[in-house]
Amino acid sequence: MLFPTSEQSSQSELLQQLRKQLEYPRQLDVWSSSSSDPCYTQPTAVLAVTCEGSSITELKIVGDRITKLPNFSGNPIPNVTLSEAFVLDSFVTTLTRLTTLRVVILVSLGLWGPLPDKIHRLSSLEVLDLSSNFLSGSIPPKLSVMSKLHTVNLDSNYFNGSIPEWLDSFSNLTVLRLQGNQLKGSIPSSIGKAAMLTELALAGNRVSGDQEFTEG
Length: 216
Known about the structure:
Elements: H1 6-21, E1 47-52, E2 55-62, H2 88-96, E3 103-107, E4 112-114, E5 127-129, E6 134-137, E7 151-153, E8 158-162, E9 175-177, E10 182-185, E11 199-201, E12 206-207, E13 212-214
Parallel strand pairs: 2-3, 3-5, 4-6, 5-7, 6-8, 7-9, 8-10, 9-11, 10-12
Antiparallel strand pairs: 1-2, 11-13
Helix pairs in contact: 1-2
C-alpha cells in the first residue's frame, strides 16, 4: 500500500482549499476525496494537473461562466461571477503556496477583483492564463519581476488604466494577450524593446493603434 508523502498531502490540501474558494465547480468534483493524489488526476479539456515527481508544475481549470457584460462595476454578480464571499487576494495566496507551478491556466471561473501583486511569488511561472474572468484594476506591476514568464493571457477581463511601461523587463516574453479589456492611452515604446515578443493582442481596448497584430 502506497502512502502519500507530506508534499502530496500538502498539495492535496491546497487544491481542496482552491476548490472551496472557487465555490466547488463541478469540474473539480474529482477532488472530492481529500486523500486522492492530485498528480493522478485524469486530464480532460477542463481540468489538468501535471506533476514532475510529486510536485505540481501545471494547473489548468476551465470553467463555464459567461464572461463579457456591457456594464460591469467590479462588484460580484449572482450566478455570473463568484459570490461576494470570494476574496481574490486569499485565492492567490493559496495558489502561490504551490511553489513549483510553471503553468497556471484559470479560465472562465468567475474570478473577480483586482489581481494582487503577490502573484509574483510564483517565481517559476512560465505561462499565466487568466482569460475570460472579471479581473479589474491595473495590471499588477510585480508581474515585471517574473523573469521566466513567456506567455501572459489576460484577454476578456476588465483591466483598466494604461498598458504598463515595464514590458521590456520581460526578457523571455513571447506572447502578450490583453484583448477585450478597458485599457487606454498609447502603446508604450517599451513594447518594441521586448526582444522575444512575437504576439501582441490589444483589440477591444481604447489604446492608440487599437488592433490585434503579430510581430515576427
